[in-house]
Design brief:
The protein has 200 residues and is α/β, with parallel strands linked by helices. It starts with 10 loop residues before the first strand and ends with a strand. The structure holds S-adenosylmethionine.
Length: 200
Amino acid sequence: MTQQPYHKYVFDTENRKFVGRFEEMYANEEREGFDSWFQEDLRHPTKQGSWELLKNYRFSSILDIGCGKGAFTNQLATIADSVMGVDISQTAIAKAEQRYPGIRFSTATAEEALSAPQRWDAIVMLEVLSYLQNWEEVLQKAAAKANYVYITLYLPPDPIGFVKSFEELREVFNTLFSLEKEVLKNNETIYLLGKSKHHG
Ligand SMILES: C[S@@+](CC[C@H](N)C(=O)[O-])C[C@H]1O[C@@H](n2cnc3c(N)ncnc32)[C@H](O)[C@@H]1O
């Protein structure tokens, strides 16, 4: 994969380490002239695939964790009565608030968002789990807080991120959720929608 200008803020590829300087990455977008992960482009395959899968659903509320600058959160607003986007980066959230003033955004980690008492009809996490050391726990908490959870994840052949294989992701997901939809594209991006098995 071609090294994009935002990659250095996320992974140290030479030393195979997670860096996670998301705030700095978003703060430097204008100066360095990039759009992190081309996230504003709704024609990007992950977003298009997600939209194909979700567009016929209707949810009473959606929490979009790791929403970045909010482009997909804004699209989710068309299939939900209410939507909220959270991201660890306050700069990303400031950009999202400026672009989509009708949507509620908040700076929060996945952990913080899932520790709040509020329940959601659906929780969405597009391309986030690889950055969460405790991704299994986060999925567990999401299962306790929502009726549905939707995730997408791109995995390169030898991932530096915390999720190491589709097999381990599927195993955890299937323990917590009844699978509604699964799509694996080009053996590199997985799309999973599940209904929580959590009761009470
Ligand atoms: C690959 S981007 C995906 C952005 C957006 N979901 C999309 O698909 O366009 C991952 C996002 O996760 C956020 N993130 C990373 N770690 C996080 C955490 N612990 N809690 C919340 N957000 C986090 C990053 O700031 C970044 O915006």
